Amino acid sequence: MKTARQLVPALRRGAGTNRAGFSLIELMVVGLILATMAVVAGSSLDTFLPKQRLGTAVRALTEELRTLRSEAISRSLEYYIEYDIDENRYRRLTPFALQGGVFNEEDTSLERYATPWTNMPTGVEITAISVAGITYADGQICSRFNGRGAASGHTVFLAQPKYENTYTIEILALTGTFKFHRGVYERDAPEDGDFE
Question: What's the predicted TM-score (pTM) here?
């Protein structure tokens, strides 16, 4: 009769009991599962992120407009926002000269201080700016905020052409406040008969 010590080496030599790793088939199955999970997660993010990018662009532009209005009120001076539709960006034009002091348009030696351009996120475009009922689809458009908080009433149209998402930011003239609209929205310009 064999002792327990003599049986253990015999069991170790048995078929399939002396494995030290994974087989190639097992590694391929795990790799296939991970690749499938990555594709599913990637496609889910691709449908979620476009709306997130558009929302981020709306919040960033709105924050710039709020800051602009607040600066205009606190300093009792006119500030401007300049939209560059062709280059898909915007910036703040201050009432100050780059050389110091208040900017005066009549003095040709002065240069207005402007903040650096802020580019729209990838895939989000400024498609048009509407001012006083006139819609501009290209070029540079300026809109002002005065020292009382009123603004040049205008509307900014943002879009994600690839995903057909659109958003409209409406800046109200008398108060300088904002209204937000999903999709394309344009208020009708007032007519003379509206005030009778």
Answer: 0.70
pLDDT at 27: 86
User: Tokens 């499938």 sit at which residue?
Assistant: 36
∠ at Cα 114 (110, 120), nearest 5°?
155
Contacts of 94 (CB under 8 A, 6+ apart): 71, 79, 103, 112, 113, 114, 115
Q: Which residues contact 50 (CB under 8 A, 6 or more apart)?
A: 123, 160, 162, 163, 165
Torsion of CA 114, 116, 117, 121, to 10 degrees: -140
Which positions of the chain have pLDDT values less than 70?
Answer: 1-20, 42-50, 188-196
pLDDT digits over 127-143, tens only?
Answer: 999 998 899 999 999 99
Q: What are 65-74's pLDDT values in tens digits?
A: 999 999 999 9
Segment 92-99 long-range contacts (CB within 8 Å, at least 24 positions apart) = 92/64, 92/67, 92/68, 93/142
For 11-37, letters b (16+ CB in 10 Å) and e give eeeeeeeeeeeeeeeeeeeeeeeeeee
Give the count of beta carbons closer than 10 Å to the beta carbon of residue 57.
23
Domains, in order of start, for the chain? 24-72+79-92+119-195 (3.55.40)
